[in-house]
Amino acid sequence: MAQSITLSSAGTAAIILNPVSKSTTVILSAGSSGTVSVEFTLDDPTIFGGSSLVWALLSSGAQMISSNITTGLAYTVLSPIGGVRLNCSSNPGATTYTLKALQAVTA
Fold it and tell me: Which residue(s) pair with 7 in the sheet?
């Protein structure tokens, strides 16, 4: 079953994933206006006292304007990752972003 988060203001929201799973598919849907990026981490956030998480862009562009996301965007990462998050720097129209992640347990 896919995990999901929503974000309707500037800020960040993350989905913690199983870093042992083989691949992850991520889908982003958005409303009318705002700027958002999808980021991932290779770190395992479930390790107590572990290193701080380092986030990097999943998308090829630095940020996406949500008015360009009319039918949603999908990414598939074939290697294990520890988490994905939305990073919204500007949301003047109170757009609601939804990020879903589904992990495969086999190759």
Answer: 97
Mean local confidence (pLDDT), 77-85: 91
Pair of tokens at residue 48: 């107590």
User: How far is residue 35 CA from its own chain's centroid?
Assistant: 14
Phi-psi region of 11 (alpha: psi -120 to 50; beta: other; left: phi over 0): left
What confidence tens digit (pLDDT) does each residue in 25-80 have?
998 887 666 678 889 998 887 787 766 889 998 875 555 555 556 667 888 889 88
Domains of the chain: 3-104 (2.60.120.260)
Say if pTM beats, i.e. exceeds, 0.85.
Answer: no
Q: Which residue has the higher pLDDT, 107 or 95?
A: 95
CB 42, CB 81: distance < 8 Å: yes
The set of residues, in sequence order, having a beta carbon less than 8 Å from that of 73 and lying 6+ positions away, is 27, 28, 38, 59, 64
Give the Cα separation of 66 and 16 in Å (integer): 23
